[in-house]
Design a protein that fits this description.
With 598 residues, the chain is of the alpha+beta class. The chain is 57% helix and 11% strand. The model has no long low-confidence stretch (mean pLDDT 97).
Length: 598
C-alpha cells in the first residue's frame, strides 16, 4: 500500500536554516513574535491531518469519483470527503493564515504553504476544494466592498463556505477577451449574470454550506476584448442581510467533466441563468481582481506538483529498497538474498535522485516565494514591498511551469521504478502520473507561463527583475567564490548567471525583428531560468550543509543534502546548455513548415 510521511525535517531546514524566516518576520509587526517552535508545532499537527485523515482517501476517492444528480444539479463527493472536510474546518486549518479581522489565525503564509504541500501530497483532488477558496478570499480581501467583505470573508475564512474562479468558457480558455457571459445591471445595484463556464474546479460539491463563485462577465456597454471584462461575486445561495442563507441562486452544475486525473474533484460545467451577483472592483477592470486569484492559483498549482513529486519519490524509494531483481553490476550487495534490491542499480538511483532533487529544490522555491508574498502584503517598508512584488512576479511563472514540468517528469520516473507494478492501480503510482498531468495545463498552460516570463516579466521591463535575481546569485558567488568546497555548486550558477544575460539580449533583439522568435524560445528559456533559480537555492542549501558538517554535526541529513546537491549540478543542471542551443535555433524551423504540417 502507498505511504506518505510529511517531510517536516526538510521543511524546517529550508525555513529555519537556509532562509531564517523568523528573522524575516521580525520586521513585520504582526509576525514579529512568531518563533520556530510555534511554526514547527503547527506543521507537525498539519502533517498528521494530511497523512492520517485525507491520504487514506486518495485511492478510493479516485476510484469512486464525484456523482452528479441531473435533476437537482447537486454533486456528491467520494465517501469520506465531506467528513474529512469537517475535520479540516473544525481543526481551524482553513483559517491558518487568514486575516484575524475576519476570524483568521494570522499565521505567516509560509505555514499555509507547507500545510498545502502536505495536503497535496496526501490527496490533491481533495485539497482543491479548500485550496481555491484562498484565491477567492484574497481577491475579495483586496478588491471587495466593505459589504462584500462583511458578507463573505468570515465564512470563507472559517471554511464554512468555499470559493471558485469562473473564467473559462467552451469557446475560450486563455484568451478571456473572447468571453460571452453577460452582466445586466439591476435597479438595486446588483447584476443578473448569464452565461456558461467550463472546467470549474470544485464548482459544485456537498462539502460546504455555500459556494462563492467569482465570475468574469461583460457589461452591456463593455469595450471589446480583455478591457471589457468585469468581475462579479455570484454565490450558490443568496445571503440574507443577517448573514443567513437565502434562496438558491440561478447558478448550477450542468455536467461534470470525464477526466484523466483528479477524478475526486468536481470539475464542473457551470450554467448561469440570470443569477444575481454584485460587482467586485470597478467596471471593466475585472482582470485586476481575477489576477489576484489567478496568481495565487498559479503558486498553488506549482505546490500541487511539489506535493506529488514528494509522495511519488517516497513510495518509489521504499519500493526500490524492498524489490529484489537481478544482481548489482559491480558485485553482489545482498549476500543473504537471491537477488539485490533494485536501488543498487545506477539508473534506478538516477530516477530517485531526480525526483528528490526536484522536490527539495521546489520546496525551497515555494517557501521563498511565500516569504516574498508575506513581504508584499505586510512589510512596513514600501520599497521592500515593491521589490518583493517584482521578484514574486518574476518567479510566479517559474513556480507554476518549472515545478509542474518537473513534477510530471518525477512522477513518471517514480512510476518507472515500480516496473510493471507502477502501471497497476493498487500501488497508487499511476494515479500520481494522471493527477500530475493536469498541473501543466490549467491556470495557464506552461507555454503561456513561458511567454509571460520571457515576454512580459523579462523583456517587458528590460530585464530589471531578472537583474535583481542575478544580484542574489552574484552575492552568493562573491561570498563563496574562494571556497574550494563550494566550487562545484558556485561555478555553474556563476557561469549561467553571465550566460543568461547575453542569452536574453539575443532573444530580445531577434524578437524586435520577428515576434515569433520570442514564442519559439520561450519554453526553453523558462527552463533555463528555472535551473538558475534552482541552482541558486541548491547552492545555498549545500552551503548550510557544508557549514554544519564542518562544525562537527554528524546528522546524516546534511550528508544526504550535499549528495543530492552534487547530483543536481552534475545530472540535471547541465540541461541548460542544450536548452540554450535549441532556443537559439530560432523560429524558422517551426514556422516555415507548411508543407510538413499540410
Amino acid at each position: 500500500m502507498p505511504v506518505y510521511n510529511p517531510p517536516l525535517r526538510d521543511m524546517q531546514f529550508v525555513m529555519h536554516e537556509v532562509f531564517k524566516v523568523t528573522d524575516e518576520f521580525k520586521s513585520m509587526p504582526q509576525h514579529a513574535d512568531t518563533d520556530a517552535e510555534t511554526i514547527n508545532a503547527v506543521l507537525e499537527e498539519a502533517g498528521k491531518f494530511a497523512s492520517e485523515v485525507i491520504f487514506p482517501l486518495n485511492i478510493s476517492g479516485d476510484a469512486e469519483g464525484c456523482q452528479l444528480d441531473i435533476k437537482t444539479h447537486e454533486v456528491t463527493t467520494p465517501k469520506g470527503f465531506k467528513e474529512a472536510y469537517k475535520t479540516y474546518v473544525d481543526g481551524g486549518w482553513a483559517a491558518l493564515s487568514c486575516d484575524p479581522e475576519f476570524g483568521g489565525q494570522g499565521l505567516p503564509l509560509v505555514v499555509n504553504q507547507c500545510l498545502y504541500e502536505m495536503m497535496n501530497s496526501a490527496n490533491q483532488a481533495w485539497t482543491m476544494y479548500p485550496g481555491l477558496t484562498h484565491g477567492a478570499y484574497a481577491s475579495l480581501h483586496t478588491y471587495g466592498t466593505d459589504e462584500q467583505k462583511a458578507t463573505y470573508l468570515a465564512k470563507m475564512t472559517s471554511g464554512e463556505w468555499t470559493g471558485t474562479m469562473c473564467l473559462t468558457e467552451p469557446h475560450c480558455g486563455t484568451d478571456l477577451g473572447l468571453m460571452r457571459t453577460k452582466a445586466e445591471p439591476q435597479p438595486d445595484g446588483t447584476y443578473k449574470i448569464t452565461g456558461n463556464k467550463i472546467f470549474i474546479s470544485a464548482g459544485e460539491h456537498d462539502m460546504a454550506d455555500n459556494i462563492v463563485h467569482l465570475v468574469l462577465a461583460r457589461l452591456p456597454d463593455a469595450p471589446k476584448g480583455i478591457k471589457g471584462v468585469s468581475l462579479f461575486v455570484v454565490p450558490k445561495y443568496l445571503v440574507n442581510k443577517d448573514g443567513s442563507l437565502g434562496e438558491r441562486n440561478a447558478i448550477h452544475c450542468g455536467g461534470l467533466e470525464h477526466k484523466m486525473g483528479i477524478k475526486a474533484n468536481a470539475t464542473a460545467q457551470i450554467v448561469i441563468d440570470a443569477a444575481i451577483g454584485t460587482m467586485v472592483g470597478a467596471p471593466n477592470k475585472g482582470m485586476q481582481g481575477m489576477f489576484v486569484m489567478m496568481n495565487a492559483a498559479r503558486l498553488g498549482v506549482g505546490n500541487q506538483s511539489l506535493g506529488l513529486t514528494e509522495v511519488a519519490y517516497q513510495n518509489a524509494l521504499a519500493y526500490a529498497k524492498d524489490r529484489l531483481q537481478m544482481r548489482s553490476l559491480s558485485g553482489v550487495k545482498a549476500k543473504d538474498k537471491l537477488a539485490d534490491p533494485i536501488i543498487v542499480h545506477p539508473d534506478v538511483r538516477k530516477m530517485l535522485l531526480t525526483a528528490k532533487a526536484y522536490a527539495e529544490g521546489g520546496r525551497a522555491l515555494a517557501i521563498y516565494s511565500s516569504v516574498l508574498l508575506e513581504k508584499v502584503h505586510n512589510h512596513p517598508d514600501e520599497k521592500v514591498r515593491k521589490d518583493s512584488d517584482e521578484m514574486l512576479s518574476l518567479l510566479t511563472p517559474i513556480v507554476k511551469a518549472f515545478l509542474t514540468d518537473n513534477g510530471y517528469q518525477a512522477a513518471t520516473m517514480c512510476q518507472q521504478v515500480f516496473g510493471g507494478h507502477g502501471y497497476i492501480k493498487e500501488w497508487g503510482m499511476e494515479q500520481h502520473v494522471r493527477d500530475a498531468r493536469i498541473n501543466m495545463i490549467y491556470e495557464g498552460t506552461n507555454t503561456i507561463q513561458s511567454l509571460d516570463l520571457l515576454g512580459r516579466k523579462v523583456l517587458g521591463d528590460n530585464g530589471a527583475a531578472l537583474k535583481k535575481f542575478g544580484k542574489l546569485v552574484g552575492a552568493l558567488v562573491q561570498e563563496e567564490g574562494v571556497n574550494e568546497k563550494m566550487a562545484e555548486f558556485i561555478n555553474p550558477i556563476a557561469v549561467l548567471g553571465e550566460q543568461i544575460t547575453k542569452f536574453t539580449m539575443e532573444i530580445g533583439f531577434k524578437g524586435l525583428q520577428n515576434p515569433d522568435e520570442v514564442g519559439a524560445a520561450a519554453v526553453d528559456y523558462l527552463r533555463v531560468a528555472g535551473h538558475l533559480v534552482f541552482g541558486y537555492f541548491w547552492a545555498r542549501m549545500a552551503q548550510v550543509a557544508l557549514r554544519e558538517i564542518a562544525a562537527g554535526n554528524t546528522d546524516p541529513f546534511y550528508q544526504g543534502k550535499l549528495q543530492t546537491a552534487r547530483f543536481y549540478f552534475a545530472k540535471l543542471f547541465p540541461e541548460t546548455a542544450s536548452l540554450m542551443r535549441t532556443a537559439r535555433a530560432g523560429s524558422a524551423v517551426l514556422m516555415d513548415t507548411d508543407a510538413a504540417l499540410a
